[in-house]
Amino acid sequence: MHRMKTLVILISGRGSNMQALLEAELSVDRIVVISSNPAAEGLKIAESMGFKTVSVDHRHFPDRETFDAALAVEIERYQPELIVLAGFMRILTDDFVLRYQNRLINIHPSLLPAYPGLHTHKRALQDGVKIHGCTVHFVTPAVDHGPIVIQAAVPVVSDETPQTLADKVLKQEHRIYPQAVRWFLEGRLTFDDQIVTVLQASVHDCVIYSPGLQH
Ligand code: GRF
C-alpha cells in the first residue's frame, strides 16, 4: 500500500517561508501546518491556500516539556517524512530534537555559524560584515548549530539598514528553503557527522548568481 508522504511545517508568525514552501509544489501527498500561536498570520495564509492547519498553543502548557510532548502527539498523527521549522519561535527540548533527528530542518537568517540567535541583521551590520545571508540546517540540540544543507549570501551595501538587509535575505530564504526540502524528499542529502553532501548536485544548484549591478 502506498504510504502517504507528508510534510509538517511548524510556524509561529508571519509564515512567509511556509508560503514559499506551500507554493513550491513539492512532491508530497499532504502538507500540514502546525502553529505554536493560534493568532499567527501564517495560519490564515495556509488556510486560504487550502492546506490543513492546526494550533498547539504554547501558552496552554506549563513548560517546554509538556508543550513539546503535545506537539509530538500532533505530529505523530501525520507520520511526516520531514518536519520543517519556518519561523517557529519556540526552542525545542533535546528529547523532541533527538526524536526527530535527521528529519527536522530549520532556516536561520545568517550565514551560520556566524550569528546564531536573534537580531542577526542588526548584529551583522554592527560588525560591519560585507556579506550576510541565510542557512538551512538540520536541527540538533545545540540551537542554530546543526549540519548545514544550503546557504545563500547577499552583499551588504553602504546605506543598509537591518530592515533592507532582512528583506534581501528573506528573498533568498524563499529560494533556498524549497530547494533544500526538495533535495531531502529526493533522498539526495547524506551526512557524515556534521557535514551534509547533496548527491548529484549540478553547477546550477551551487552557483552564486548576480543580476549584474550597474555602477
Ligand atoms: C525568517 O527570517 C527565518 O529565517 C527565521 O524566522 C523568520 C521567519 O519568517 N527563522 P517567516 O515567518 O517565514 O516569514
Give a written overview of the molecule.
The protein has helices at residues 16-22, 41-48, 64-76, 94-99, 120-127, 162-185, and strands at 6-11, 30-35, 52-55, 82-85, 104-108, 131-138, 148-155, 189-192, 195-198. It has 215 residues and is of the alpha/beta class. It has 2 domains: 1-100, Rossmann fold (3-Layer(aba) Sandwich); 106-215, Formyl transferase, N-terminal domain (Rossmann fold). Strand 2 (30-35), helix 2 (41-48) and strand 3 form a beta-alpha-beta unit. Helix 1 (16-22) packs parallel to helix 6 (162-185). The longest helix has 24 residues, at 162-185. The protein starts with 5 loop residues before the first strand and ends in a 17-residue tail after the last strand. The model has no long low-confidence stretch (mean pLDDT 95). 5-O-phosphono-beta-D-ribofuranosylamine is lined by residues 13-18, 42, 86-87, 107-109, 134, 170, 173.
